[in-house]
Amino acid sequence: MAHVIMPKMGDGMTEGTILRWLKKEGDSVEVGDIIAEIETDKASVELPAESSGKLANIQAKEGDTVPVGAVIAEILGEGEPAQVVGSVELEPSEPASPPTRKEPVVTAEQAEPPLQERVKASPLARRIAQEAGIDLAMIKGSGPGGRIVERDVQQFIASRQAAAQVPTVEPARPAAVRESPPAVGGEPLSRMRRLIAERTTITKQTVPHFYVTMDIDMTEAMALREKLNAALPEQSPKLSVNDLVTKACALALTRYPQVNALYQNERIYPSQEVHIGIAVALPDGLIVPVLRHCEKKTLRQIAAETRHLVEKARAGRLTPEEYTGATFSISNLGMFGVDEFIAIINPPAVAILAVGAVQKQPVALEDDTVVVRSRMKVTLSADHRALDGAVAAEFLRELKRVLENPYSLVE
Amino acid sequence: MALITYREALRQALTEEMERDPSVFVLGEEVGRYQGTFRVTEGLLQRFGEMRVVDTPISESGIAGMAIGAAMIGLRPVAEFMTFSFALIAADQLVNHAAKILYMFGGQIAVPVVFRGPAGGGAQLSAQHSHSLESWYAHIPGLKVVTPATPADAKGMLKTAIRDNNPVIFMEHAKLYSTRGEVPEGDYTVPFGVAEVKRKGRDVTLIAYSQPVLLALHAAEKLAETEGIECEVIDLRSLQPLDMDTVLQSVRKTHRAVVVHEDHRNVGFGAEVVARIQEFAFDDLDAPVLRVASADVPIPYARNLERAAFPSEEDIIRAVKRVVA
């Protein structure tokens, strides 16, 4: 008899929801057969059987949310009686042999992120951080061997409070209005909403953002795009403006690795590999699938893969590897006609590009003649701990150069 | 209050208890005519006579057996071991008899006996005569183990030991006999199982017993002066029963602790204290709990090597700095 457990699909996953059982009690299953669909914070994934036999004793109904490691069903061998089970402690040292499977599916084993260095912290520091709702990964330890000790957490809390207090320019509003509780009702946060709330709050409070905006002439790039799309067979998907921007970013980032960097534990890790996260709106939030190794990809590859990832994201089928590990991100609200906006960085990356709409505008030339050009505004949000305004500006100037001389995009 | 030595304090306790209760008597090697190897029993023979101050042959097993037998028939013997290093030969009497008789006889026969004498070393007595061994006794259910560090506790706890209906291992320290301290006059007792905060501090809890309490206090003074680190020093006084409440209360305040004892580090009593701290105050700890103890070697004779093997003030200071790092 084998237990079917709620798998750990990524770091930080503590529970999962059964979306759907694809097999019912009594069904015969083979190793690798998909028996259920599971929803994590970020995606839904398929759960393959890790042994063959009869599915029995389903413990979690569709819609149930259960902790990682909980037994959700059993697979009985030939002639085995069903047993009542509770839960097993999951330290996924488990399955002895990896399941052999016919199609690529994600298993708990696969999804397990590479072994990460455990955050060293004293028990007291852990307790205080937990009570204050602080992620220890954001704190640098000053104790022996980098251990996070009480004073580090206290200092972090103090600095956070100080940061929170600085802009206390209270709008002059009547106290009664401000303090009156919201009317009855209110919806509890969905898991994704809650996650977004937590992460953006912490990021905005702890990462010193600064912003640099650049106006880019897209006339040439739009013309190139039109030519390239015209050459495509009728039914094949077209290149988008965002694909051009992604490719241009990949080129500019390889020249400015300071912008393509990770900031962790007071160290900066500039990356030669360019993994670009593309923010995708979902009905209940957003997700940032990651386009890997953009530095090696052609414009067409970028376009095709982005399309594929966006489709998977909207279907809620991204695997954890597909939405983690970005070294840079792009958020594009141009399709909504947004002129310009600023985005929140996606740590540990140090920068994100907010892309506005391409709009026809009158432009005054050197000789004082006025012409109509296609313009686009981009705003880089950057982490001031890792880089400064001048580098951000140089990066944007390079991005502008590439997009205004767009043939390097297809070289 | 009178300023007297640890030795005099013990003698006062013996004298007062022998005056108070005729069933109390003293036995051991050289306790009578020779007046005691460390002069603790000085004057007792003259005062109470040979019936109550009994010189024994050189047989620790015999001394212990005789004391246990006397206790079983209703007397209150105080048996002196010349040192606890010599008590090893009486181990069967202590462990299998003194500690077990009440239990084996269904609670019908108590063994109100005190085994006292110096433990520890530090006077170039070498490997065979420098044992501490309190952890051995504390390991045995049925024995009480106390280790007073001051004259006041020596007197008050010896009285408590004599009045206790259970066998008590009363461990003194040769280096403490000549230390002086204020001792309340007249009849008073110090209860077992109550640790004492000897010095208040906010940064680190230093836990010690017997002679190393003085070492810890000196180290604490030096740390306060030179480093501004304020150590809270706790004297456990009694190892069995053990007052963890006082220790835990302090650790919950300082979040750091160092245990100091003269016994070897390996499987020493400090290991028990550390285990209980992490068991009951895990979430209050901001650093690992360290032990300062003797090196795990036979105690050397050579002065320099002996010094190096025993815990020192510098060792304590180093450990404290490590836990506040």
Topology:
The complex is a heterodimer of chains A (411) and B (325).
Chain A: E1 2-5, E2 15-21, E3 28-29, E4 34-39, E5 44-48, E6 53-56, E7 65-67, E8 71-76, H1 108-111, H2 123-132, H3 150-165, H4 175-179, H5 191-206, E9 209-217, H6 219-231, H7 241-255, E10 261-264, E11 267-270, E12 276-278, E13 280-282, E14 285-287, E15 290-291, H8 299-314, E16 328-332, E17 351-364, E18 370-383, H9 389-404
Parallel strand pairs in A: 12-16, 16-17
Antiparallel strand pairs in A: 1-8, 2-4, 2-7, 3-6, 4-5, 6-8, 9-18, 10-11, 12-15, 13-14, 17-18
Chain B: E1 2-5, H1 6-20, E2 24-28, H2 44-48, E3 53-55, H3 60-72, E4 76-80, H4 91-98, H5 101-104, E5 114-119, H6 134-138, E6 144-146, H7 151-163, E7 168-173, E8 180-183, E9 196-199, E10 204-208, H8 212-226, E11 231-235, E12 238-240, H9 244-254, E13 257-264, H10 269-281, E14 290-294, H11 303-309, H12 313-324
Parallel strand pairs in B: 2-3, 2-4, 4-5, 5-7, 6-7, 10-11, 10-13, 13-14
Antiparallel strand pairs in B: 1-8, 6-12, 9-11
